[in-house]
Amino acid sequence: MADPVGKLSRSLGEAIGAAVDLERPGDPTHGDYATNVALQLAGRLRRPPREIAEELALAARTLAHVGAASVAGPGFVNLELADTWFTETLASVHADGDRFGGNSATTRERVQVEMVSANPTGPITVASARNGAYGDCVARLLAFAGHKVEREYYYNDAGGQMEKFRESVEAVRRGEEPPEDGYHGEYIAVLAETPGDPVPRMLESMEASLEQFRIHFDTYERQSVVETEIPEAIELLDTFEDEGALWARTSAHGDEKDRVLVRSDGVPTYFAADAAYVRRKYAKGFDRLVYVLGADHHGYVGRLQALAEMLGHPRESLEVLIYQLVHLTKGGEATKMSKRRGDVVFLDEFVEEIGVDAARWYLVSRGHDQTIEIDIDLAAEKTAKNPVFYVQYAHARIAGILRNAPEGSGSWQAASTPVGQFATEERDLVKRIVEFPAIAAEAAVRRAPHAIPTYAIRLADDFHRFYHHHKVLGSPEQEFRLALCGATKSVVARCLDLVGVEAPDSM
Length: 507
Fold this sequence. Notes:
The protein is α/β, with parallel strands linked by helices.
């Protein structure tokens, strides 16, 4: 995989015998890249940082692709790269093709991501849609990094909430109001029109909504099946009895307290089902388990990781990703959500209002640990003020340029373009493109897909700026600029795909 900046960093590191991190200066007059490694080394080497910086600058000037190196301030080294670096970098991006930025994982794992997993008591809500959008993007990033990923949906097909749901439907069938603590809303009346158990039909409707939302599950797991394996799971745990109940000694494995497995009346707890479920997952051969849960499940982190350890697996091999709430505003007013009361916003309605692309984009545009507020009016706009439209338009604009390119164009090679002619906007666009591998790799490691939309906006900014200042077709630099456009289009498309958004060729 091409990593031109990393390659340059390693070359500099070899020259001075220390790791060198390169960053783009905020002020472009300070060069293409800069490093503060001299400041970091000064204390350890007991030498003035500027003295170390001068040595690094001298070593940098000997490298083939460094045009100039200077020392600034207390010990910063600023690098201006030769045009050959830009041509060869662009060639390496094209050589990687669809693989550019991917396969970053040093150790490949088999990973299961369990997400959404809402009880089939009503249509998918916008809150659960955030779970799905976030979890699916994490799965996409992990797969792009080189891991083998499975998406699973775990649903409760038995228990108190399911009975309340069935009772609510039956009440409407009898011409009565659903119980106060039951489920309300138009969807209950629709389900009541057809005889039989409403749960299978509700689950089928939920699956259809998620598929439309571009979330495909590889497996579905039912709680009723998992619960049959509770006895086998309990046998593998460190347990003790107290006041007639059976407990798991989870506090000895990092949990804040011990957990009840079987109550004094002999009824297993939800935690016992969790134990059976974790055991079942690892038995399928997964190296890593990822749960995506809502903010009200924060207490599950310690207990689930304790289960992993009790079952003989590293606690860090089980991750619990907690996402925060979603607030919708329309016309400046907040929209409330409650599945039982019936004043909830469902995913299908949300998508109908703003489209799948905008829905996916906005639900992952901020970190999962932050509450999201989505302005429905803005999200529905087809203007540059809407960031997803803005990024998609960059892709469509490039597609139009490439469609109109002369037949036979696109065979650009690094050696075919003379050096010394690159404009600031061209250099900036190349530098932005080569940020992508590091952005994608870090987003996968940190489970932080919101970094992708943020980067995509910056890439679109740089492209639109380049396009505004420079002619592509018919210019003396046509072949290089077509190659630059093609590389940009490929990376924009990859960014959009990683967040589940389409990359249109026309708009």
